[in-house]
Every structure is written in C-alpha cells, then in structure tokens.
C-alpha cells in the first residue's frame, strides 16, 4: 500500500493522519523527479524539440546535438555544485517528522547533476544522433 493511500485511509477512516506520511511522500517525489531526469537523459527520453534539429542538414544537425549535450553537461555541473552547497548548508536541519535531515533529502540534487553530466558527456563523446519522439511521424 502506498504512503499516500495510507494517509488518506487514516485520515478519513481512522480519523487520524500520520504526521510522517506527507513528508515521506514529498521526499520520495523529490528523489523520483531528480533521478528520473538523469535517467531520461541517459535513455534519451528527456523533453526536447526534435523536429527542428532533425530537419537540419549535416553538419548542422550534429552541431546542434553537440551544443544541446554541452548545455546539459553545464546544467548537470550546476546541479552538482549548487546542490552540493545546498546539501552542506542544510545537512543538520531536521525534517520535522522523519529521522532525516534536509541535507539527506537534498543529496539527490548533486547526485542527479553528476549523473546528468556523465550521461550527456557519454552522448557527446559518442556523437549520438537524436531521434524523434514516439508520437512524431
């Protein structure tokens, strides 16, 4: 049973709501979002506009993809550096209803930034082309 299902059941059936459920659901959503972003870059599922790039002739197509990967690497490095600073600044701040600190919750930000940069670097080195989304013809 999911955490939110338990929270709703507790609130409306048992007439009590566990204090930790909302914080845990928020923590899991933060981690899922950041790791999902890194995974999307690795798998090529991240949000992008491909029609404009795929219509370009070579070598412009390759250059556009290279620039996009460089921008993703830059964003990943920013997540790594600034996320690391956030983790450092909040490492001792307690999460009110969980045995964790805010720094532990935010640890996913520099982690996902490093993964994003590494995945984009791999694509840049390999010179991978982009393909259209599943919905495009």
From TrEMBL:
Belongs to the TRAP transporter small permease family. This is TRAP transporter small permease protein. It is a multi-pass membrane protein. Keywords: Cell inner membrane, Cell membrane, Membrane, Transmembrane, Transmembrane helix, Transport. It is found in: Cell inner membrane. InterPro entries: DctQ (IPR055348), MFS_trans_sf (IPR036259), TRAP_DctQ (IPR007387). It comes from Aurantiacibacter flavus. Its main location: membrane.
């Amino acid at each position: 049973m999911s955490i939110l299902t338990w929270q709703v059941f507790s609130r409306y059936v048992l007439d009590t709501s566990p204090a930790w459920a909302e914080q845990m659901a928020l923590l899991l959503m933060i981690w899922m979002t950041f790791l999902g972003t890194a995974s999307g870059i690795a798998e090529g599922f991240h949000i992008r506009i491909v029609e404009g790039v795929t219509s370009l002739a070579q070598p412009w197509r390759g250059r556009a993809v290279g620039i996009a990967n460089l921008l993703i690497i830059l964003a990943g490095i920013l997540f790594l550096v600034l996320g690391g600073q956030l983790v450092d600044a909040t490492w001792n701040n307690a999460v009110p209803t969980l045995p964790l600190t805010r720094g532990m919750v935010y640890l996913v930000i520099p982690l996902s930034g490093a993964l994003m940069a590494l995945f984009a670097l791999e694509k840049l080195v390999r010179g991978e082309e982009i393909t259209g989304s599943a919905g495009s013809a």
